[in-house]
Amino acid sequence: MIEKMDRPIDYDWDGHTINLYCDEDGDWLAYLLDLPNVSAFGDTPESALNELYEAWEGMKECYKTDGEDLPVATRRKDYSRTF
């Protein structure tokens, strides 16, 4: 189980883009664009981001435990630029 941790002022999303929006019920949803299954809700944008940070740290721990590489953010991928 992951313990609650102090949140850094600047979150480290490993290059992943965050989508943050308010739904029709007034709840905030935050998720990693490349990994939409890593998501969180909150009453405020800050709480949604805090929860997303917890989810991302937990996901990274699962990848590490399973001996798998973390998914690379789309914007960090090296493309050959050829077709």
What does this structure look like?
InterPro entries: TTHA1013/TTHA0281-like. This is HicB family protein. It comes from Aphanothece sacrum FPU1. It is a single chain. The protein is of the alpha+beta class. The protein has a domain at 18-69. Helix content is 25%, strand content 22%. The protein has one helix and three strands; from the N terminus they run βββα. The protein has one helix at 45-65; strands spanning 18-22, 28-32, 35-42. It has a three-stranded antiparallel beta sheet with strand order 1-2-3, covered by helices on one side. A hairpin with a 5-residue loop joins strand 1 and strand 2. The longest helix has 21 residues, at 45-65. The chain is globular, with a radius of gyration of 14 Å. The protein starts with 17 loop residues before the first strand and ends in an 18-residue tail after the last helix. Residues 1-5 have low confidence and may be disordered.
